[in-house]
Structures are given as structure tokens and as C-alpha cells.
Amino acid sequence: MAYDPKKANPTLIIPEAPAKITRKKKKPKEIAVVIPDACTGCEACVSFCPVDCIEHTPRDRSDGVNVVIPNVQIRFDECIGCKICVHVCERMAWDAIEMWPTEQVAEFFEIKIHDKYEDAVLAHNATEPEVQRG
User: pLDDT for 60-69, tens place per residue?
Assistant: First the structure.
């Protein structure tokens, strides 16, 4: 069996954190999905995301369970499907992020995945209630 440096030292496949944040330019074939029961909320994946679409799950979504450290979630409409978070979680944490086909994510979560970041922002702003200023 040949020597594989990635198996000998799994941290070799962990990418560098991005120098700058970019935005989605087209709809990806796959989107990252966090498996809530496997996520520890360690945030190892957050700083590696090149589009900054990973955040903590709000505490009020924990179904009444007193969560000490909330897990993370992906803002699906901003994900570019790069798989970096999957590799980081797999090597540094708990293997709690999977890639799902984009259409499966849209169907399962009953959401629309837009082609571009700007389209997602416009759709989000259209659904937000207007704040009245006094």
C-alpha cells in the first residue's frame, strides 16, 4: 500500500481560511447541510466559509431544550457548494456537515434557492415586513 500523506496527517487537506469573502454567482449543484444531532457548535467551519454563510442557530429554535452551545446552520441561499466546510468539519470536528443536491434541499426545507446572491437578497427583502420609523 502506497504512503498517503493525507491519511497520515488529515490536517493536510484543511484549506486556508479565505482572504476575502465572496458571493454566490450561480446556483450550485449541491448545498451544505448541517446535521443538527451531530453538530457540537464548535464553529470550526465558520472561519473557512468563503461566502460567510454559516452561523449559529438562534437559541429560540431549540424546541424548549436548554442548549448550552447552539449548533451552526447554513444560509442555504448563499451557499456556493464548495465543500470546504464539509472537509473542515470532517477533519477538525465531528463530520456533521453533508452535501445534498440543491433541489433536495429546496424540497426538504420548502425554500427557493436563487441563482445569484443578489436575487436571494432581493427575495429576502421582499418578504421582510417594513419597519416603521417614528
Answer: 655 555 556 7
